[in-house]
Amino acid sequence: MHRRLACAALVGAVFLSAALALARGRAAYAIPLCPVGQIVKTADPALSAPSPTYAGNTITSSGGSWSSCGVTISGFYAEWLRDGSVISGPSWVAGSPGSFRYVAQAADVGRKVTSAVLPCNAEGCYGSYATSSNAVVPVSAPPPPPPPPPPPPPPPSPPPPTQLYFDEGFDYSVTDESGNLLSRQSMDNLRDGSYEISPYGGNAGVYSESAARPVLDSITGATSSISLGVSGRRCYTIDKHRTAHDSLTRVVVWKFHHKVHWCATYPVIDANLLTVDSFFSDVDPLFQVDWDDHGTGWWYTWRGSPTGGHYSRRQGQIDNCIFKWGCIGTHYPQIELWVNGNGAWAAK
Description:
Elements lengths: L1 H27 L10 E5 L3 E2 L9 E4 L3 E4 L4 E10 L2 E10 L5 E4 L9 E9 L2 E2 L4 E2 L32 E13 L4 E11 L3 E4 L6 E3 L1 H11 L13 E14 L5 E14 L2 E2 L5 E7 L5 E16 L2 E18 L3 E6 L2 E7 L4 E3 L1
Antiparallel strand pairs: 1-4, 2-3, 3-7, 5-6, 5-8, 8-9, 8-10, 11-12, 11-15, 13-14, 13-23, 15-16, 16-17, 16-18, 19-20, 20-21, 20-22, 22-23
């Protein structure tokens, strides 16, 4: 009896070991639970497009959602259809089904545009094309807006504006660091468009444009490597102005000023004390100032110093206004100024 029980136990152990070995073998080498190469659709392609869609707009189709049993999808065929008839494709696209595009045509207006996808792998292709779950119906573009109405007839011609002639001038002063006046220079009735240049911070000369260019290049450091300076701190003020006169009466009808104040210990300008201003003065009642502080400015390198020189340009606007007719003439005076750390300056 004991011998039979031992034999039965031995046989059971052998079968149990075999079953465990078979289970381990199945775990190590999984057998697919689907036919190898079978492609299964989990979602249809879907379209997206602007709303409304016009001819020339782009319609985008997704590739849908797919699975492939044991074999990677190698690519897919893509088609576009109009009311169920193919109008583009089939086109082969490598890789898993992804988005693809179509540009709506005039012939698509009022028709249903859909897409279709057919994925394939090494074992074959899906049974049939999968059509997009939605359709896009392009519409006609709206008509252009009507043309604007014709402009009203022009008002009666105003009388001619006041005729002006211009000249220029400047006021320049130098003080020490305590504010004591060291020198001053004033010049008026200079030719319109002239340059005034003080090469080393002393009295300025008057130059034509052609004669001014080499001197201006010199004081801004463009061509010269030699400059003169004074020891100690100095402060400088240059007020360059442009004056308008009535051509008949010769009286001043306005002045436009561009004024720069700077202090320097040769050759460096104190950037915190630099001020740039512009304004009108002596304005005749027939003129109206619209603005007087439009312009720009920047530092430029002079003799190796990052704050050796400063350039500024200021422009004003003033209107010639006559009772009944309103403002019938506009002037835009403009002045440029270059100032340096040794007191040199130039104006135009």
